[in-house]
Amino acid sequence: MARRLDGIQILRLIAAVMVLIQHAVYLPSVHYGINTLPFRKLGIGTAGVFVFFVISGYVIAGLVDQRPLKFALHRIARIYPPYIACMAIAAAIMILTGGVGIEKIRWLWSFTLLPLGGAIDSWTSVPFWTLIYEMTFYTITLVLMLGGRRAFDIGLVLWTSAIVLTAYFLPPPPVVTANFLAILTSPLSLLFIAGAALGRLHAGSSWPLAAVCLITWTAFWRSGTQYQSIPAFSIGTLAALHFAVVGSELVRRQKWLRPLVRGGDYSYGLYLIHAPIIAGMLLLGLTKVVTYPAAVAICIAIGGAVGILFGYLDFHFYQRIARKAVDDILVSSGTGKSTANALTPERAAPPV
After folding, report:
1. Which helix (H) or strand (E) holds 351?
2. CB 3.0–4.6 Å: which of 21, 49, 53, 84 could bond 191 by disulfide?
């Protein structure tokens, strides 16, 4: 039985709330004509997304001993049902409130999360660009899993080297793109790699983390790219993640922390749905009836409440229906047994 990593769940909730605050302040500011540059410089939402990426890398590293088919089906079952539901809800909100014309909908890659090229335009206010990066990471992990843990460790180091070389010798893409090669060589992927390397360290393999740190600190940070702060950010997040993992048993014994742990369980749904809800309220005229501070407070309260409710439904759907369906398929196909790591964080921290 895999032990639950409650500390990670609290860290996940913190990251989701950071993204919620970003949208709850930024979107009303635009409607009120307030200069958003000072707030955007804080990077609260960006930091929250980066924390999610590092956590995802850590969680997935704990699953590299799974059979590839099981890994792939569980990732699909975890990510897509709530995502498709959220996109449908968000599309309805944006179209009905006049926030986007139906002709602007990019049906293919925005609903499939496939990196099929082009600039990422989150027309629904759902931050699906992050999930395109996430699914690309899963795909690369799936390929590396075919060679076992050793191949996964080597792959992390080679991937880091490729990102560093690209930062030196190739110009960065002008915007965040849904192109597979752009994602593969993006410094943002270092966040997944850093989390995965820490996961391998906790599993007993220290050299991937040492190699990744050495490569990034001695080369990448000097390249002068727009992401040169990522190595420093990764180190701080890795430290927080490490303490979150080792402190999970302590967290488990603290009853007063249980609501925060549950909030982490529901953080994927909160992350998905809050921005469309906020955008919908603003398009319906919230800013015409309340002051700016009140609008921000309402956006946080209602966006957060709806997000937690959606996350609750999503979490229980996965645990009781989607995951069980996948396991039944695996058993019927004769591939249900797995040699998953004893720390398997899939039970403990569903990826976002």
Report:
1. none
2. 53
Give the dihedral of Cα atoms 209, 214, 215, 221; nearest 10 deg: 110
Report whether pLDDT(54) > 80: yes
Distances (CA, A) of 154 to 86, 190, 211: 37, 15, 10
Q: What is the rounded CA–CA span in Å between residue 202 and residue 243?
A: 12
- Taking alpha carbons only, the member of 210, 209, 207, 235 closest to residue 221 is 235
| Residue ranges of domains in the chain | 6-345
First to last CA, the chain: 22
- A 10 A CB-CB count for 141 gives 23
Rounded-to-integer distance, Cα 343 and Cα 200, Å: 11
Residue 131 to residue 127: CA distance in whole angstroms: 8
Q: What percent of the chain has pLDDT over 70?
A: 89
- pLDDT tens digits, 237-264: 999 999 999 999 999 999 999 999 999 9
What is the pLDDT confidence band of residue 341, given thresholds at 50, 70 and 90? very low
Largest CA distance in the chain: 60
Residue among 244, 214, 245, 243 at smallest CA distance from 231 = 214
Amino acid at residue number 272? L
CA atoms within 13 A on the CB side of 255: 0
CA angle in degrees (0–180, nearest 5) for 217-222-224 = 130
Under a CB-based contact definition with an 8 Å cutoff, are residues 166 and 136 in contact? no
| Predicted local distance difference test score (pLDDT) of residue 52 | 96
Residues forming beta bridges with residue 119, ordered by sequence position: 177
Which stretches of the chain are DSSP H helices? Answer: 6-32, 37-42, 44-61, 68-96, 107-112, 128-145, 148-169, 180-184, 189-202, 207-218, 230-246, 248-253, 258-265, 267-283, 292-317, 323-332, 345-348
